[in-house]
Amino acid sequence: MRKSIDGLAQLVVDAVDRQPVSGEVFAFSNRGRDKVKLLWYDRTGFWLAYKRLERARFRWPGVGGSMGLSDLHLLLEGVDLRTPRFKRVVVERVN
Predict the structure, then answer these.
(1) Taking a C-beta distance cutoff of 8 angstroms, is the pair 16, 64 a contact?
(2) pLDDT tens readout for residues 47-75
(3) Strand pairing partners for 35?
(4) Which residues lie closer than 8 Å to 52 by C-beta, 6 or more apart?
(5) Please, which residues have CB within 8 angstroms of residue 18's CB and are 6 or more apart in sequence?
(6) Which residue in 4, 6, 65, 74 has the most C-beta neighbors within 10 A?
(7) 19 vs 70: CA distance, rounded Å
(8) At residue 88, does pLDDT exceed 70?
(9) What is the pTM (predicted TM-score) of this model?
(10) More reliable by pLDDT, 18 or 80
(11) Which residues of 40-67 are buried (b: 16+ CB within 10 A; e: fewer)?
(12) Start-end of H helices in 1-95
């Protein structure tokens, strides 16, 4: 978690082969998963947000990959994204 904007932007290019100025939000976590940094670009410059949990851990859905902003919001609120949120229900029509 020592990297700042330039270091994280370079990590985006090297590790995930994306452009940090694309408008996407990139999330980074430490090994203990109690800290997270968000990096994004908004046409005028970079934003860097940092959150540290005091007693809990962020529950990431997996290593790498992408998620929607609603999933990112849930992650930052402490929801465990490793477990399914919805169960599949099969409804049959009986005549």
Answers:
(1) yes
(2) 999 999 888 888 887 766 778 888 888 88
(3) 52
(4) 34, 35
(5) 12, 24, 26
(6) 74
(7) 22
(8) no
(9) 0.77
(10) 18
(11) bbeeeeeeeeeeeeeeeebebeeeeeeb
(12) 5-16, 69-76
CA nearest 27: which of 45, 44, 83, 16?
Answer: 16
Alpha-carbon distance 13 to 15, whole Å? 6
Could you tell me the CA-to-CA distances from 10 to 2, 14, 57, 95 in Å, in that order?
A: 13, 6, 26, 62
| Neighbour tally for 79: CB within 10 Å | 14
* Contact (Cβ atoms closer than 8 angstroms) between residue 25 and residue 43: no
Tokens of 59: 């529950």
Read off the DSSP letter of residue 23. S
Structure tokens, 85: 């949120």
Q: Across the chain, where does the E strand assignment appear? A: 26-29, 35-41, 46-52
Q: For tokens 């929801």, what's the residue?
A: 79
Q: Which two tokens stand for residue 82?
A: 């490793």
